[in-house]
# Entry
Amino acid sequence: MIAGEAEAIANAKQAAQASNGFINLVRHAIEQAWILPASATNQLRAVVRIQLLPTGELVSARIIESSGDSVFDRSVLQAVERAAPFREIRELPLAAQSQFREFNLDFNPKDVRR
Amino acid sequence: MQFNSYAKSLVVAVSFAVMAGCTSTGGSQDGSMDGTGSAGAAGQGVTSGQASGTQLGQGQGYGQGQGQDSRIPDQRTIYFDYDRDTIRPEFESVLNSHAQYLRSNPNVSVILQGHADERGTREYNLGLGERRAQSVERYLTVQGVSPSQLEIVSYGEERPAVDGHSEQSYAQNRRVVFDY
Amino acid sequence: MKRVVSIMVGLWLALYVSLANADLTIEITKGSDQAIPIAVVPFATQGQGALPEDIAQIVSDDLARSGQFSPLSRGSLIAQPNRSEDVHYRDWRAVDSNYLVVGQVTPQGDGYSVQFELMDIYGERRMIGEVVNVGRDQLRSAAHYVSDKVFEAITGIRGAFSTRIAYVTAQGAADNRRYALHVADADGHNSQQILSSQQPILSPAWSPDGNKLAYVSFESGRPAIYIQDLASSQRIQATSFEGINGAPAWSPDGRQLAMSLSKDGQPEIYIMDIASRSFRRLTNNSAIDTEPDWAPDGQSLVFTSDRSGGPQLYRYNLANGQAERITFTGSYNSRGRFSPDGETLFLIHRDDQGFHVAKKDLETDRMTILTDSRWDESPSVAPNGSMVIFATQQGNRGVLGVVSADGNASYRLPSAQGDVREPAWSPFMN
# Structure
């Protein structure tokens, strides 16, 4: 009983760490692939919804919240496409894998010149 | 390394040649100058770019024109410190000789050409060149020269006496030239 | 006990991953400032014979020079389509190209018909497609036109590749120098000499319609400001006062010329009404006031003044006649030039290393040095604000450099012999 709980906690911790690792990996890959438009400002924000296969391949990426700037919107979609696939999803614990089959990316540059 | 020997030769050249209105051959290292032989004359050709008054006798001191009121003084260029328009004491006798000549020849007029070194923006340097020429103009009028004999044209950095980016070149370019 | 455990498990998960299935959101707050990969396939030629110009190469070079694009090398082009129908998007994804330009040239009449298309590789769609007809000797212009359209479609910023530059050359020894004023394409090609003199020429300035140049020439032995019509070569002498006649700058409506005149003793800023030749004096002090530039809205001018001791930039408000100092960083700031949106000033700033092109954000007051060259002068901004051309030194020669407005990209324009200086970027020409 006690051992089971400890194990559950340990598993949950591990799952959370793995999830966190995956999030960082996705974030890093997309930041590397996102070529900020010269006209980007920190006022612009777009949210992209992405769907992955269990293998990490991109099924779809679509804008669910547009920045109102077609250049900016195109740049974030290209970033997702360039960064995919995210094969590391297969290394997540099963429970976490399902979390990441579909998620949002919120693009909002903080560190641009104006 | 090359710069060192270049600078050294300039120091030597400048130290006893500048006052005579002569220049080193340093400027010939600039890619835009054609050939080396013309550099000595180049330093003297600053008076107007026309043919007048360019063939000064080398080695003549700047005081030599004094007393010869009918002759334009030989030394026609004086030099200035960086970012300054004050007349250096060693050039007062040059200015005095020109003042004397102009007073004695009230029909003669002269263009005071003001020049700056190349550092800084061009239009601003036109202003600096003009200040130097105005400084000379003030000195001459205090000496009794009629303002109507004097005209100022500032060339800023547009017509350097010598090319090159050394302090030695700059020192020869910060100048006022008497163009009779 | 079991409930406690599951709560704890839940908390752990909630800490890192939103449990609500649909709402996991990852924030992306940083991007890369790398250049955009683009493939420009050599344009097909219909008919016999090679073309005198390689359009794809010119487009590629234009885009690369902007600093915002990194065109794929020809060797890494995976296919050679010439029409969008022949493009397999997957191929171009494999070489990591975000965009693809294809096209073809067909001789037509006395000239050419140039057809081009731009594709978004990841969006798998054609973005633009156009046909341009040009004269026999206008293939370079056609190529710059393609560059303009591609640049605008991708960045949302109007391309400035079809613009021109004016500049001054000086050749010969110090006592026998020849000065000339030239006009060329923005990439340095097609240069034409429009004035030559044994006396200095400086400060060319384009009229807002791109038809005229104002400049300072010493050809009479004294400085004077001229206005020359480029098509007819006819010119007028705008000013020839005693003293400095310098730094002409057109008002945005092209009717007035700001300038620096020392006719009253010191260089002061004046505005000349070109049609009536009347003058209005703006400044009055014992300092050097020069290098005016109009704000794009025409309401104010920036100029250089050393009234505080050294040269600094001041902004003159035409409505109230007040001049306010606007640069405080460093002991030398001069020749300010407004960006087309009026929000940024490009200028020459001196630091320990020398004179650099810098920019000052007029809203935040932040000053950013854009170049690491040491002898920079005469910044002039492209009409789309993306690049700044300036004069600098390479070896012992004056050359023209271009730096992107963010400072990330720069290049030197090729030049012939002699010193090249005093560049001025034209307005949009069409």
About this structure: The beta strands of chain A are 46-52, 58-65, 102-107. The longest helix of chain A spans residues 2-33. The longest strand of chain A covers residues 58-65.
